[in-house]
Amino acid sequence: MNSQLVMFISQIFNGLKIGSVYSLVALGYTMVYGIIRLINFAHGDFIMVGAYVLMLTAPAIIAMGMPAWVAVIPAILICVAVGVIVEKAAYKPVRERGNSMTALITAIAMSLLLENGAQAVFGADYKTIPTVFSIPSVNFGALHISGDTILTIVLGLVIMVGLQLYVSYTKRGKAMRAVSEDKEASILMGVNINSTITLTFAIGSGLAAVASLMYVAAYPQVSPTMGAMLGLKAFVAAVLGGIGSIPGAMIGGLTIGLIESLTKAYIGTITAGIITSAFSDAIVFGILIVVLLVKPSGIMGKNEGEKV
Amino acid sequence: MNTRFTAKFVTICAATGLAVSLAGCSGGSLSENSGSDSAAQGNTITLGSITTNSGTAAAYGEAEVAGFKLAISEINKAGGINGKKVKLESMDDKGDPTESSNAFNKLSGDDSVLAVLGPTISATTAAVAPLADQSKLVAIAPAATADSIESGNYLFRACFKDSYQGEIAARFAAKTLKVKKVAVLYGTGDPYSSGTAESFMKEAKQLGLDVVDQESSSSADDTEYSSQLQKIQASGAEFLYAPYYYSIAGPYIIPQARSVGFNGVVMGPDGYDGLKLTDNVSLYNKVYYTTHYSPDDKENSKVADFIKSFRSENKSDPNTFSALSYDTVYMAKQAIEKAGKNPTREQVRKALAGSKFDGVTGSFTLDKTGSPKKSVIVLEMKDGKPVFNSTVKPA
């Protein structure tokens, strides 16, 4: 195979690797936004919580002779608990009394609370995590693709399809869609709004735990602020894909990952060294602005008029 | 709306609030002191310290405070400085320039403070340097290596500077490892990373090395470097100079370099000290870094004593930052003693400038800019542990 081609395909997979993690995180943002129109800024920090649970439980699980990834089970349980507590203790009272701005500020407060809380409990320093998966990499001649990358992409797709089916066909899923369309009408139709919202948060937070597993598999380190930039990029991914849309989150995440990787690899060559790979973040956010100017609802978003 | 913006906004608000309250504090203490004798003439000498005890560089700050405490307790056991007990006034700047400026202002408002130890990282030291000149209070940075922080006035340091580390790394690559093709990867957002990389490239070209690739990341704390590393691998480089911090080079850059098939040498600056390793330690073979201090340095008799007393005090082995900060305290002590019985802050500066010093991190003379010219130690990772490789003497 041509070495330039190998390079290009490798760069695509580099992009898919980080992009699939963004997708998993973006799914969490989109779920919550789709139902209660709240941008849960603490979502990135749920991932941090999940990662710390993995760090704490993985050694014990390895000692019991089980594969390290089983640690995702306690991580899911804790994340769901944290998500539901945050919803019940902070978001729900604020949502009932305030407006969408107060809810947004509460989300930012929760994010800072979780970050600083983790720093108080675990200290500020970075901690490494044992290897979670030992999947051999796949080789096609000169091309190496890491097993983790393939697993993350597959897992992302499975979760996306699963969620889409769940939301479309189950009773609970239909309730979620009903709440997202019209809260008052769904109360009249006998939908329990509070339990539906709690369920949404539980699913979103559980997804955060899965995302943290895939994240630490690729980047084996945890720190209290690890969720901040990750959450921000995933939020951008969710907006780019069309926030509220489940396939949109997936597409948005992969797109951001690919843009990042390809700009890092080729922008220097294309612009003859004027713009370097250091600009990749600027380019990612620049593209977001362009997409939003052209299609404000995002790639997969529905254009809906404001209800009067 | 974006979290980062909001987080920053909150920080700025908090910082402004703090600055206002601090201004109130220092104003108050100044007027109190103006009537009475300066506390420096009392029975204690206060050394202020500003370190980063939380955030990315937290491990550095913690190690520095341990070094300060050890040196000060030794000095006090031996009778203090000029017969006066030494007290440490320790402050955390969280790695934030605003916080470190506030901390410095607070310390300079206290007349009993004769010298400030710190700050920890270059970014915070750069913020403190002009304040040190303004308030005529000496600051000795133990490990801030950026070239740009030099004021040539009230700011000194115990460590060598970045350009010097980059040069040494290039010389080590050319003379000791005898490689021909080298590549660089650095973070443009961080002067430490970009400054070291620049001086490495300059020296490498002078030594006739072929710089085959030059890649950068937008910040020095990215997590994904595979794209850049893939290009470095494709460029045929045998040696990669990647000046990043321990928390980035350890879990991200080195494993990612190995996973794209780069099996050459990876070298870094002293930011690799305390490198965070993943459980596959074989990835870290052929990793070197320049540093200020090595416990295996048998030529320096002070090293063994330092390690012994550090162990008995802290139940752990000292790292570079502890060694440098330990020397920093003794530099301050030497200067205060030389300055006389009840020295002013200006006299301390005069005594420190151009002085010669023997410490655990080597013997050196401070040059005009306040930075020492000293030998550099190269460590090599073997089975996940840094091992003494060689000492590169100043040119």
From TrEMBL, chain A:
Its main location: membrane. CDD domains: TM_PBP1_LivH_like (cd06582). PANTHER family: BRANCHED-CHAIN AMINO ACID TRANSPORT SYSTEM PERMEASE PROTEIN LIVH, HIGH-AFFINITY BRANCHED-CHAIN AMINO ACID TRANSPORT SYSTEM PERMEASE PROTEIN LIVH. The chain crosses the membrane at residues 20-39, 46-66, 72-91, 103-122, 142-167, 187-215, 235-259, 266-294. InterPro entries: ABC_transp_permease, BCAA_transport_permease. It is found in: Cell membrane. It comes from Bifidobacterium mongoliense DSM 21395. One of its GO terms (cellular component) is plasma membrane. The keyword Transcription does not apply. One of its GO terms (molecular function) is L-phenylalanine transmembrane transporter activity. Keywords: Amino-acid transport, Cell inner membrane, Cell membrane, Membrane, Transmembrane, Transmembrane helix, Transport. It is a multi-pass membrane protein. One of its GO terms (biological process) is D-alanine transmembrane transport. The lineage of its organism: Bacteria, Bacillati, Actinomycetota, Actinomycetes, Bifidobacteriales. Belongs to the binding-protein-dependent transport system permease family. LivHM subfamily. This is Branched-chain amino acid ABC transporter permease.
From TrEMBL, chain B:
The keyword RNA-binding does not apply. Residues 44-384 form the Leucine-binding protein domain. Keywords: Amino-acid transport, Receptor, Signal, Transport. InterPro entries: BCAA_transport, Leu-bd, Leu_Ile_Val-bd, Peripla_BP_I. GO terms for biological process: amino acid transport. The keyword Signal applies. Pfam families: Peripla_BP_6 (PF13458). This is Receptor family ligand-binding region. The lineage of its organism: Bacteria, Bacillati, Actinomycetota, Actinomycetes, Bifidobacteriales.
